[in-house]
Amino acid sequence: MDGVTGDSARLAARFEADRPHLAAVAYRLLGSAAEADDALQDAWLRVQQADLGEVENLTGWLTTVVTRVCLNQLRTRRNRREDPLDHRDPDAAQGGAAGDPAREALLADEVGVALLVVLDALAPAERVAFVLHDLFAVPFDDIAPLLEKTPAATRQLASRARRRVRGRTPAPTADASRRREAVEAFLAATRGGDFAALVALLAPDVVLHADARVVPTPEPITVHGAEPVARGAMAAVARARFTGLALLDGRFGLVMAPYGRPRVVLAFTFGDDGRITRVEVVAEPDRLREIEITAPGEWKMDH
Hints:
Layout: H1 6-30, H2 33-49, H3 58-79, H4 101-111, H5 113-121, H6 124-135, H7 140-147, H8 151-166, H9 174-192, H10 195-201, E1 202-210, E2 221-224, H11 226-234, H12 237-240, E3 243-248, E4 251-256, E5 264-270, E6 276-282, H13 285-290, E7 293-294
Parallel strand pairs: 1-6
Antiparallel strand pairs: 1-2, 3-4, 3-7, 4-5, 5-6
Helix pairs in contact: 1-2, 1-3, 2-3, 6-7, 6-8, 7-8, 9-10, 10-11
């Protein structure tokens, strides 16, 4: 951007000032920090060649340019969609398209891993309509031309996406609240390496069952007892960085989903005293596809 003057300089300054907003839009649309960076770079090249004409809302116009780039990427991705579930393994990432795993994990945690999972499953037009309207409060009248739809049709796309995102939300009972807290505490203890806290969450006779794809092993694995189960959880710290709270068929659990692609879920059963009595760990693709994974429901607007 060195050497630009006049209107070009002002445009460059505005683009840089709006970069955090534009990056947030691109990340939520694409689910990958590295792809969002590429989208912003592509958008900047297009912006430099554009005729601003009578553009009044420069931030809105830049958002539109970035969204168009992301929409093209989403459509291309969907056309070659059938990637294996272990595609783009963050542990194997060495730069390039996979980007920085630590940065990816931080952003996923901020946005919500489960929300990214649901967004990844949406059709491109649904994703754009929901993200721009529900997360960034862009009016449907402004989104509709991007999608070549009427405002009413765009509203329907966002509504359909919203139902997918929310899924079967549990009733706000005290029991549901305690279970959510226990699941969040399980994740926090795993990430923090707090063995004692993990053991305290587990019933003495807790059982963990993991399918053969989790480790992987020739056969499923069953572990008995609080301390052995806690030790197993401690060994999964690397996975925990891409793991977040989710609703699994309407019940609080955990999903590990690098780049929004679900790879492992943990479903919990609780005893009368609130401690965890069973942990079911699922990684087999066919079984994952049978589980309705939805967001807990407290995503925040970013405007």
